[in-house]
Amino acid sequence: MKNNHLFDSLVKTEIIYGIGSDSLFFSMFDVVREGILLSFLSSHYELKESLTDEFYYIAHNLVAYKGKKVIFKGSIATASRDEILLFFNQSNKNDDAREFLLSPVFTDKPKFVIYVAEGTYYIYKKDV
C-alpha cells in the first residue's frame, strides 16, 4: 500500500520520518481507539473553535496489518493552526476527503485527538 498524498497543499513546518513518526502516530491512534468521544463537528468552521493551540501534528490515518501487528504507512507533519484550517478548507473545496489524525504538538501524550473523516471531525480524549 502506497500513500501518494504528501500534504502538498499544506505549508508544512516539518515532516517527521522514521521511528519517531510511528511513535507519534500510535500515541494519537490509541486515543481514538481507546479514548472517549467528546464531540463531533460537521465543518471546518466549527473546528476553528476547538483548535486553541498554536501548532499541531497532522497524520494520515493509514495503517496496514501484518498478522496482529499494526504498521503505520502514512506521514506526519507539524503545522500551525492557521495552516491546518487552510489545508482542510482547500481539501473540502477540492472534494479531497481523506482520513487524518490531528492533535496539538505533545511530548508525552496528546491531550486530545481529532479524527478527520469525510468532512466530519470527531474529538477524542483518553479516558483517565
Order of helices and strands: EHEHEEEEHEEE
- Which regions contain 5 or more consecutive residues with pLDDT less than 50? none
Question: What would you call the structural class?
Answer: alpha+beta
Report the mean per-residue pLDDT as an integer: 85
What's the count of strands? 9
Helix content: 25-40%
Question: What does this molecule look like?
Answer:
This protein is an alpha+beta fold and 128 residues long. It has a domain at 14-40 and 55-94 and 102-120. Helix content is 28%, strand content 34%. The strands form two sheets. The chain has a seven-stranded antiparallel beta sheet with strand order 1-6-3-7-8-9-2. Strands 4-5 form a two-stranded antiparallel ribbon. The termini are far apart. The mean pLDDT is 85.
Q: How is this structure best summarized?
A:
The chain is of the alpha+beta class and about 130 residues long.
Structural key phrases:
single chain, 128 residues, two-stranded antiparallel sheet, 3 helices, 9 strands
SSE blueprint and pairings:
Blueprint: E1 14-16, H1 19-34, E2 36-41, H2 44-50, E3 55-60, E4 63-66, E5 69-72, E6 76-80, H3 81-93, E7 100-104, E8 113-117, E9 120-125
Helix pairs in contact: 2-3
